[in-house]
């Protein structure tokens, strides 16, 4: 309906007191589409849950069969891991020692370098420099780990042998150093995101008190972003514990019970790769041992994730 006001201008009068445009009106088709999208998103979430449940079920069920033959006490305390011998022994300690040693070497490399890079990119780098460096870090994180493994074997270990001629051609030191290089992008990227999330007002307040950029970075920004930085460290640890191909190529496949990084060793994930290649017949007790080893690795990762969750809740700052 249309009527003219005193000025001669035409004004539109609504057809009814509660009329709503067709665009805003609730339509059955639009409601159906929204519900369909919600169901698709819910299904995507359930896929991850069901995948996790399936992995746990396979590991636990096969591990139960394994521990029906090998005692849990022997598995946890024996210092020999020889599933391919005539008289096999299944002590997880040699594999656990190799996993923890290579992870420790990797973290000694990754945490200081990754934190330094994150502080520089967040507090000191110009935007053009940041835009140039970030893609290279992401590229470093996208290199296949098998390439890192051969880089450790053909470049890093020979360089270490120049400093230590008695060093073995396969050792945990070279593998751990290259593992640390591979982990740096994860630590630096997450730590930088955490520091850039700190409000600029905190930095400005520090500058107003006469602090330098370096003092502000270490005494204001770093403590304020500690929760996110520690989460980056936890992710780096989990990444190091689960690393496979670098240690399989460069650390050797010898399950020695040692924490000396100058010696060769075998990690849990490297042993799983070895058995998966067909060294043991399917269904044998030796083949089932990879599920017990995998369950041990999953429990280690779960413990790290729980620690990370507690740390985030303990040091989280709300702005």
TrEMBL record:
Please provide an example of a Pfam family that matches this protein in its UniProt record: BPD_transp_1
Q: Which domain of life is it from?
A: Bacteria
Q: Domain ABC transmembrane type-1, which positions?
A: 96-308
What membrane topology term does the record carry?
Multi-pass membrane protein
Q: Where are the transmembrane segments?
A: 36-60, 90-115, 136-160, 172-195, 216-235, 285-307
- Keywords in alphabetical order, please: Cell inner membrane, Cell membrane, Membrane, Phosphate transport, Transmembrane, Transmembrane helix, Transport
Claim: Hydrolase is one of the keywords in the record: no
Question: Where does the UniProt annotation locate this protein?
Answer: Cell inner membrane; Cell membrane
Name residues in a coiled coil.
none
Q: Does the keyword Amino-acid biosynthesis apply?
A: no
Similarity comment: family membership: Belongs to the binding-protein-dependent transport system permease family. CysTW subfamily.
Fetch the PANTHER family from UniProt: PHOSPHATE TRANSPORT SYSTEM PERMEASE, PHOSPHATE TRANSPORT SYSTEM PERMEASE PROTEIN
Task of the protein: Part of the binding-protein-dependent transport system for phosphate; probably responsible for the translocation of the substrate across the membrane.
This protein's name: Phosphate transport system permease protein
Q: Which organism is it from?
A: Aromatoleum toluolicum
């Amino acid at each position: 309906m249309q009527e003219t006001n005193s000025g001669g201008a035409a004004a539109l009068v609504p057809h009814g007191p509660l009329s709503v445009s067709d665009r805003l009106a609730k339509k059955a088709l639009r409601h159906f589409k929204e519900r369909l999208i919600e169901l698709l998103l819910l299904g995507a979430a359930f896929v991850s849950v069901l995948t996790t449940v399936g992995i746990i079920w396979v590991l636990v069920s096969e591990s139960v069969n394994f521990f029906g033959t090998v005692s849990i006490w022997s598995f946890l305390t024996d210092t020999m891991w020889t599933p391919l011998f005539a008289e096999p022994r299944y002590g997880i300690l040699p594999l656990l020692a190799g996993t923890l040693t290579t992870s420790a070497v990797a973290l000694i490399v990754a945490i200081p370098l990754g934190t330094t890079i994150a502080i520089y990119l967040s507090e000191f780098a110009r935007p053009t420099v940041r835009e140039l460096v970030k893609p290279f870090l992401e590229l470093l994180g996208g290199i296949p780990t098998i390439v890192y493994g051969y880089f450790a074997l053909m470049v890093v270990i020979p360089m270490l042998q120049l400093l230590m001629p008695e060093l073995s051609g396969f050792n945990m030191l070279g593998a751990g150093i290259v593992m640390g290089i591979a982990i740096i992008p994860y630590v630096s990227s997450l730590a930088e995101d955490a520091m850039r999330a700190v409000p600029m007002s905190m930095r400005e307040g520090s500058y107003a008190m006469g602090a330098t950029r370096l003092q502000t970075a270490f005494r204001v920004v770093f403590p304020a972003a500690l929760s996110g930085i520690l989460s980056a460290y936890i992710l780096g640890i989990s990444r190091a514990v689960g690393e496979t191909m670098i240690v399989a190529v460069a650390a050797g496949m010898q399950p020695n019970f040692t924490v000396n990084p100058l010696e060769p060793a075998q990690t849990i994930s490297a042993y799983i790769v070895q058995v998966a290649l067909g060294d043991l017949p399917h269904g044998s007790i030796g083949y089932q041992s990879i599920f017990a080893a995998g369950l041990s690795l999953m429990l280690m990762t779960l413990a790290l994730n729980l620690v990370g969750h507690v740390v985030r809740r303990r040091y989280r700052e709300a702005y």
